[in-house]
Amino acid sequence: VYRRANHPYFDPTPSDVVATPASPGFTDRNIVGEPAQRYTYLVTAVDATGTESAPSNRVGAFEFALTPAAAPGERAYNLIALNLEVPGVTDADSLAAYVGPGAYMIVRYEALTQEITWRLPGLAGVNFAVTVGDATFLSLDERAPDVVWLVGGVPSIGAVRYKLTAGEPTGACAYNMLSVPLHRGDLIDADAM
After folding, report:
1. How confident is the model at residue 12 (pLDDT cuts 50, 70, 90)?
2. Cβ neighbours of residue 69 closer than 8 Å, sequence gap 6 or more
3. pLDDT (tens digit per residue) in 133-167
4. What is the CA radius of gyration of the chain?
5. What dihedral do alpha carbons 40, 4, 57, 92 form, nearest 10°?
6. Is residue 19 a contact partner of residue 43, using CB atoms and an 8 Å limit?
7. Strands 124-125 and 115-120
8. Sheet of 59-65: strands edge to edge?
9. If residue 95 lies in a helix (H) or strand (E), which one and from where to where?
10. pLDDT band (50, 70, 90) for residue 70
11. CB 45: neighbour CB atoms within 10 A?
């Protein structure tokens, strides 16, 4: 099992080995509580002669710090990037269920229409699709966790693409919400973007 922080498309080296289990299955208990780190894993198999297989698909474990509401009846907005292919997270309701209790509302800004789409999970609003690369607001109440782990497949380079909405010829601006694709580690600040 290979692991590297903050380099989702790494080529594995011996220094990246974190475990050599004799049977399938591995739980990495050494990464909890590090929201600044984004971990990517690869797995290979080694036969009795020492021949190593090609690496598996890439799996990421990304921790996002959340800020729940301070008191009952209040809400706190948190912006997260859904930059992994999280199994079962396909729409606003399933994202709310993944985050857990306290996910009061899921909100997305629609660049094409320049409007906000919202969902009170299971109750009202549009249960909009959620896909890898989306930047989504979570409106959290006081029961929400202070961290959410996104665990899922690392998208292939070029799989996350955006169609940007341009401003009007009259000079009005258009807003676009997006997350930086994982392979664009060079986009580290607003000027680079």
Report:
1. very high
2. 75, 76, 102, 140, 141, 142, 144
3. 899 999 999 999 998 989 999 998 888 888 888 88
4. 19
5. 10
6. no
7. antiparallel
8. 2-5, 38-42, 59-65, 147-153
9. helix 92-99
10. very high
11. 10
